[in-house]
Amino acid sequence: IKIAGGLALLLLIVHTCSRPASASMLLLSSGNVIEQTMIEQERDDDMQRIVLSPKDIQRVYDGDTFFVNLPNQVDVLGRNIGIRIRGIDTPERRSNCRTSDQRSHEKALATKATVLLRSQLVSANTIVLTNLGRDKYFRVLATVYADGIDVTQALMKDGLAVPYGGGAKRTWCK
Length: 174
Prior knowledge:
Blueprint: E1 9-16, E2 20-29, E3 32-40, E4 50-52, E5 57-62, E6 65-68, H1 75-78, E7 81-85, E8 88-89, H2 100-123, E9 127-134, E10 140-146, E11 149-150, H3 151-157, E12 162-163
Parallel strand pairs: 7-10
Antiparallel strand pairs: 1-2, 2-3, 4-9, 5-6, 6-7, 8-12, 9-10, 10-11
């Protein structure tokens, strides 16, 4: 490419999974944008989700966290990966409540939430993780569907989960 009257900087930004999803090319001369070309490719939904089977579930820690072995991944990248369910908070197994009665209450709720999530995951034919990201502990943050049903719905319906978008969590101590 010829650009008269100055130096040009070519910046190519490519976002990839297994293939480029989009690319931008900026030609800069003396700090001014001369030309911008966007190359958009249709995103493949399979790159935006993870499909699991019940055999991939390693353990359910509590009502909003479980661990999986990701299929078709080497052990170092795909073994015993923590999954945090997006958008909810459930009672904690390790309660921070002040009194023993409050701790017992929260632990009982945590056990119920854990059992409900485990039953949803292991009884499903297919588990799909979408809306993928990372949380502050670097766990995979995802919306989780068991046979097409959002697992948060049953937890919330039974009072075992509340909406959560980050920040301070609600107390389960009562």
